[in-house]
C-alpha cells in the first residue's frame, strides 16, 4: 500500500490533543478517569485505531508525548477492560499496593471495578485494546454456557514473550496492522468473528477467576441432542419458533430438553433464544450505523 494511504481504513484518529481533550477522548472510549501530567503544556496525545463493530472493541496505538498518570477513581463506572503493551517506552500499573512494570515484553490490564493508577512515560507508544465490560461478560457466559454470577477478574500482568498470552498479543499486532491497511478486516461479517476470537482468546490465554471452570467446561462435551437444539435455534432464530419445533429438532422430550438447557446453559430454551435474538439485534444496530430503524431490525429477528 502507498505510505500516503496508511490509516485510510481507521475509525479513530486523534492528533495533537491537549490534556483536557485527551482526557475527554479516552473517557468516551474507556470510561471516566483522571489524567494528570507534570507538564500539561507538553501533552501531545495521538490515537489511531479501529472499532470492531460487533461489540465495539477498539484496537489501535496510543501515545501522550509526555509523562502522564491515569487514575481510576470512579471504578464502578469505568466500563471497560483496557489492555496495553508498550511498543516503545514503558509504564507502571499500581493496584492494591502492588507495582507492575510494563514494557515491550509485558503488557498490563486495567480492569473495571478496581481502583488503580497507571503511570506512562513520555516516550511510550503502546498497542491498546479496549473491550467493554458487557462484551466480556457476554462472551464469558457463552463460553460457560450459563450466566456469570461474579465479575471477570484477570491477573493484571500479561507476558508478551512466552506462552498463550504472548500468542494473543501477536494476534493483536497482526489485527492492528491489517485493520490499518485492509478493508477486509473492517467488514462486519468478517470482523464480528474476529472480535469474538480476540475476546475468547484473551479469556482463555490470561489467568482469571473463571480459568478453572472454563477448563472443566472445555473438557465436558455437550450432549448431541443439546447441540442439535442449539444449532437449530441459531439457524432459525429469525423465524417464529415453538417448543414443539425444538423438540422435533432435538429428538427428545420437552422435560429432557428443559433439564439439559438449565444444566448446561442456565436458562430455558425460549429464554436462550430470546438472549440470542437480542444479541443479534444489538450487533445489527451497531453494524448499520443508524441506517435502519431499530423496529425494522427487531422485527427481522422475530420480535413482535
Overview of the structural elements:
- With 304 residues, the chain is an alpha+beta fold.
- It has helices at residues 19-30, 133-144, 163-181, 188-205, 211-219, 224-235, 243-250, 254-265, 269-288, 294-300; strands spanning 12-17, 34-37, 45-52, 57-63, 68-72, 80-88, 91-95, 98-102, 106-110, 116-120, 125-132, 157-159.
- 42% of the residues lie in helices and 23% in strands.
- Strand 7 (91-95) and strand 8 (98-102) form a beta hairpin.
Offer a few descriptive terms:
about 40% helix, globular, about 300 residues, single chain, 7-stranded antiparallel β-sheet, alpha+beta, disordered N terminus, 5-stranded antiparallel β-sheet
Number of strands: 12
Taking pLDDT < 50 over at least 5 consecutive residues as the criterion, the unreliable ranges are 1-6
The ordered string of helix (H) and strand (E) elements is EHEEEEEEEEEEHEHHHHHHHH
Radius of gyration: 21 Å
- Shape field: globular
Largest sheet: 7 strands, antiparallel
Relative strand content:
15-25%
Secondary-structure-based class equals alpha+beta
User: Helical residue percent?
Assistant: 40-55%
Largest sheet: spatial strand order: 1-3-4-11-6-9-12
The averaged pLDDT comes out at 89
How many DSSP H or I helices? 10
Separation of termini?
A: 47 Å
Amino acid at each position: 500500500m502507498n505510505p500516503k494511504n496508511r490509516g485510510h481504513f481507521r475509525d479513530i484518529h486523534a492528533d495533537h490533543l491537549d490534556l483536557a481533550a485527551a482526557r475527554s477522548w479516552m473517557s468516551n472510549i474507556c470510561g471516566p478517569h483522571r489524567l494528570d501530567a507534570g507538564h500539561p503544556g507538553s501533552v501531545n496525545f495521538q490515537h489511531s485505531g479501529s472499532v470492531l463493530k460487533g461489540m465495539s472493541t477498539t484496537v489501535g496505538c496510543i501515545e501522550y508525548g509526555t509523562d502522564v498518570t491515569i487514575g481510576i477513581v470512579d471504578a464502578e463506572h469505568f466500563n471497560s477492560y483496557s489492555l496495553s503493551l508498550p511498543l516503545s517506552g514503558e509504564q507502571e500499573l499500581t493496584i492494591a499496593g502492588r507495582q507492575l512494570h510494563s514494557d515491550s515484553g509485558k503488557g498490563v490490564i486495567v480492569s473495571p471495578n478496581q481502583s488503580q493508577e497507571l503511570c506512562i512515560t513520555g516516550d511510550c507508544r503502546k498497542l491498546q485494546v479496549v473491550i467493554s465490560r458487557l462484551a466480556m461478560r457476554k462472551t464469558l457466559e457463552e463460553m460457560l454456557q450459563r450466566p456469570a454470577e461474579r465479575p471477570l477478574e484477570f491477573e493484571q500482568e500479561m507476558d508478551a514473550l512466552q506462552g498463550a498470552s504472548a500468542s494473543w498479543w501477536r494476534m493483536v499486532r497482526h489485527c492492528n496492522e491489517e485493520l490499518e491497511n485492509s478493508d477486509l478486516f473492517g467488514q462486519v461479517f468478517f470482523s464480528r468473528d474476529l472480535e469474538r476470537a480476540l475476546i475468547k482468546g484473551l479469556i482463555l490465554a490470561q489467568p482469571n477467576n473463571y480459568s478453572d471452570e472454563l477448563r472443566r467446561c472445555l473438557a465436558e462435551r455437550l450432549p448431541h441432542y443439546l447441540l442439535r437444539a442449539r444449532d437449530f435455534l441459531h439457524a432459525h432464530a429469525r423465524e417464529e419458533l415453538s417448543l414443539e419445533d425444538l423438540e422435533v429438532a432435538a429428538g427428545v422430550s420437552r422435560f429432557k430438553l428443559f433439564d439439559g438447557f438449565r444444566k448446561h446453559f442456565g436458562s430455558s430454551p425460549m429464554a436462550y433464544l430470546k438472549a440470542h435474538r437480542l444479541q443479534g439485534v444489538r450487533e445489527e444496530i451497531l453494524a448499520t450505523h443508524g441506517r435502519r430503524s431499530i423496529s425494522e431490525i427487531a422485527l427481522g429477528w422475530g420480535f413482535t
